[in-house]
Specification:
alpha+beta; four-stranded mixed beta sheet; two-stranded antiparallel ribbon; 32% helix; 174 residues; 14% strand; 4 helices
Length: 174
Protein backbone atom coordinates (compact mmCIF):
# COMPACT_ATOMS: atom_id res chain seq x y z
CA UNK A 1 0.00 0.00 0.00
CA UNK A 2 1.35 3.42 -0.85
CA UNK A 3 1.14 6.44 1.41
CA UNK A 4 0.12 9.97 0.50
CA UNK A 5 3.68 10.98 -0.42
CA UNK A 6 4.19 7.93 -2.59
CA UNK A 7 6.73 6.15 -0.30
CA UNK A 8 6.58 2.60 0.96
CA UNK A 9 4.69 2.22 4.17
CA UNK A 10 6.25 0.18 7.01
CA UNK A 11 4.53 -1.27 10.02
CA UNK A 12 5.55 0.02 13.41
CA UNK A 13 7.26 -3.25 14.31
CA UNK A 14 9.57 -3.21 11.33
CA UNK A 15 10.42 0.47 11.48
CA UNK A 16 14.00 1.25 12.36
CA UNK A 17 14.76 4.00 14.85
CA UNK A 18 16.12 7.17 13.40
CA UNK A 19 19.49 8.46 14.56
CA UNK A 20 23.16 8.10 13.86
CA UNK A 21 24.56 4.60 13.59
CA UNK A 22 28.08 3.48 14.36
CA UNK A 23 29.97 0.22 14.26
CA UNK A 24 30.31 -1.40 17.67
CA UNK A 25 32.32 -4.43 18.78
CA UNK A 26 32.44 -7.32 16.31
CA UNK A 27 30.71 -5.29 13.61
CA UNK A 28 27.49 -4.75 15.55
CA UNK A 29 25.83 -1.40 15.17
CA UNK A 30 24.84 0.73 18.10
CA UNK A 31 22.32 3.56 18.17
CA UNK A 32 24.94 6.01 19.39
CA UNK A 33 28.56 6.07 18.44
CA UNK A 34 29.77 7.27 21.84
CA UNK A 35 31.12 3.84 22.90
CA UNK A 36 29.60 4.11 26.39
CA UNK A 37 28.86 1.05 28.47
CA UNK A 38 25.20 0.15 28.63
CA UNK A 39 23.54 1.70 31.62
CA UNK A 40 22.33 -0.40 34.49
CA UNK A 41 18.63 -0.93 34.49
CA UNK A 42 15.94 -1.58 37.01
CA UNK A 43 14.40 -4.55 35.24
CA UNK A 44 10.89 -5.47 36.23
CA UNK A 45 10.99 -3.36 39.39
CA UNK A 46 13.51 -5.60 41.22
CA UNK A 47 16.14 -2.94 41.83
CA UNK A 48 19.33 -1.90 40.15
CA UNK A 49 21.83 -4.67 39.48
CA UNK A 50 25.06 -4.70 41.40
CA UNK A 51 26.96 -6.18 44.33
CA UNK A 52 24.95 -7.37 47.29
CA UNK A 53 27.48 -5.88 49.70
CA UNK A 54 30.48 -3.60 49.29
CA UNK A 55 33.82 -5.36 49.02
CA UNK A 56 35.13 -4.22 52.43
CA UNK A 57 32.32 -5.53 54.64
CA UNK A 58 32.45 -8.96 56.35
CA UNK A 59 29.54 -10.29 54.28
CA UNK A 60 31.79 -10.19 51.24
CA UNK A 61 34.51 -12.42 52.75
CA UNK A 62 35.28 -15.69 51.00
CA UNK A 63 35.11 -19.09 52.69
CA UNK A 64 38.89 -19.42 52.54
CA UNK A 65 39.35 -16.03 54.26
CA UNK A 66 36.93 -17.06 57.02
CA UNK A 67 38.76 -20.40 57.41
CA UNK A 68 42.14 -18.64 57.62
CA UNK A 69 40.73 -16.56 60.47
CA UNK A 70 39.60 -19.73 62.27
CA UNK A 71 43.13 -21.13 62.07
CA UNK A 72 44.62 -17.83 63.26
CA UNK A 73 42.18 -17.74 66.19
CA UNK A 74 43.15 -21.28 67.18
CA UNK A 75 46.87 -20.42 66.97
CA UNK A 76 46.35 -17.23 69.00
CA UNK A 77 44.56 -19.20 71.70
CA UNK A 78 47.42 -21.71 71.86
CA UNK A 79 50.08 -19.01 71.91
CA UNK A 80 48.53 -17.45 75.01
CA UNK A 81 49.97 -20.38 77.00
CA UNK A 82 52.66 -21.86 74.73
CA UNK A 83 54.15 -18.88 72.87
CA UNK A 84 57.77 -19.73 73.65
CA UNK A 85 57.48 -23.37 72.64
CA UNK A 86 55.50 -22.63 69.46
CA UNK A 87 57.75 -19.80 68.25
CA UNK A 88 59.63 -22.15 65.92
CA UNK A 89 56.43 -23.59 64.41
CA UNK A 90 54.73 -22.15 61.33
CA UNK A 91 51.06 -22.67 60.45
CA UNK A 92 49.65 -22.89 56.94
CA UNK A 93 46.35 -23.67 55.21
CA UNK A 94 45.93 -25.66 52.02
CA UNK A 95 42.65 -26.34 50.25
CA UNK A 96 43.03 -30.09 49.85
CA UNK A 97 45.55 -32.73 50.91
CA UNK A 98 47.95 -34.16 48.31
CA UNK A 99 47.08 -37.21 46.22
CA UNK A 100 46.27 -40.34 48.25
CA UNK A 101 49.49 -42.02 47.08
CA UNK A 102 51.58 -39.14 48.50
CA UNK A 103 49.92 -39.17 51.94
CA UNK A 104 52.02 -40.53 54.77
CA UNK A 105 49.82 -41.63 57.65
CA UNK A 106 52.02 -41.22 60.70
CA UNK A 107 51.66 -39.65 64.15
CA UNK A 108 52.03 -36.20 62.56
CA UNK A 109 48.84 -36.57 60.52
CA UNK A 110 45.29 -36.03 61.81
CA UNK A 111 43.01 -38.37 59.84
CA UNK A 112 39.24 -38.82 59.74
CA UNK A 113 37.96 -41.89 57.83
CA UNK A 114 41.15 -42.06 55.76
CA UNK A 115 41.16 -38.35 54.83
CA UNK A 116 43.84 -36.09 56.33
CA UNK A 117 42.56 -32.98 58.10
CA UNK A 118 46.01 -31.65 58.98
CA UNK A 119 49.66 -32.62 59.01
CA UNK A 120 52.85 -31.73 60.84
CA UNK A 121 55.93 -31.42 58.64
CA UNK A 122 58.81 -31.58 61.14
CA UNK A 123 61.47 -30.88 58.51
CA UNK A 124 59.44 -28.10 56.94
CA UNK A 125 58.47 -27.67 53.31
CA UNK A 126 60.60 -26.67 50.31
CA UNK A 127 59.54 -23.03 50.66
CA UNK A 128 59.55 -23.01 54.50
CA UNK A 129 62.67 -24.45 56.17
CA UNK A 130 61.22 -24.71 59.70
CA UNK A 131 58.53 -27.08 61.05
CA UNK A 132 55.06 -26.43 59.61
CA UNK A 133 51.54 -27.42 60.60
CA UNK A 134 49.31 -27.58 57.51
CA UNK A 135 45.52 -27.56 57.97
CA UNK A 136 43.43 -28.78 55.03
CA UNK A 137 40.38 -26.56 54.50
CA UNK A 138 38.03 -28.56 52.27
CA UNK A 139 37.98 -31.82 54.30
CA UNK A 140 37.27 -29.85 57.49
CA UNK A 141 34.50 -27.84 55.81
CA UNK A 142 32.95 -31.08 54.53
CA UNK A 143 32.86 -32.55 58.04
CA UNK A 144 31.63 -29.49 59.92
CA UNK A 145 28.96 -27.47 58.14
CA UNK A 146 28.00 -25.40 61.20
CA UNK A 147 30.38 -22.44 61.83
CA UNK A 148 30.75 -23.26 65.54
CA UNK A 149 31.47 -26.93 64.85
CA UNK A 150 33.98 -25.90 62.18
CA UNK A 151 35.80 -23.60 64.63
CA UNK A 152 35.92 -26.43 67.21
CA UNK A 153 37.24 -28.92 64.65
CA UNK A 154 39.92 -26.50 63.45
CA UNK A 155 40.98 -25.90 67.06
CA UNK A 156 41.15 -29.66 67.74
CA UNK A 157 43.28 -30.29 64.65
CA UNK A 158 45.67 -27.42 65.48
CA UNK A 159 45.96 -28.52 69.13
CA UNK A 160 46.55 -32.15 68.15
CA UNK A 161 49.37 -31.23 65.75
CA UNK A 162 50.91 -28.70 68.15
CA UNK A 163 50.89 -31.37 70.89
CA UNK A 164 52.61 -33.77 68.50
CA UNK A 165 55.26 -31.13 67.75
CA UNK A 166 55.85 -30.41 71.46
CA UNK A 167 55.80 -34.10 72.43
CA UNK A 168 53.02 -33.53 74.95
CA UNK A 169 49.56 -34.94 75.56
CA UNK A 170 46.62 -33.24 73.78
CA UNK A 171 44.82 -32.71 77.11
CA UNK A 172 47.88 -30.91 78.45
CA UNK A 173 47.96 -28.47 75.50
CA UNK A 174 44.28 -27.65 74.92
Amino acid sequence: MRGAQGGNRQSRRGAAKAGPRAEGPAGATTATGSGRKPRRRDRRGRGVRGHLAPVGVPVHRTRSEVFDDLVLDAVDELEEHWAGELAALEFAVEDVPPEPDAIVLDAGTVVDRGVPLGRLFREGLPEIPQPVVVVYRRPIEARATDPDDRADLVFMVVVDLAAEFLGRDVDEIG
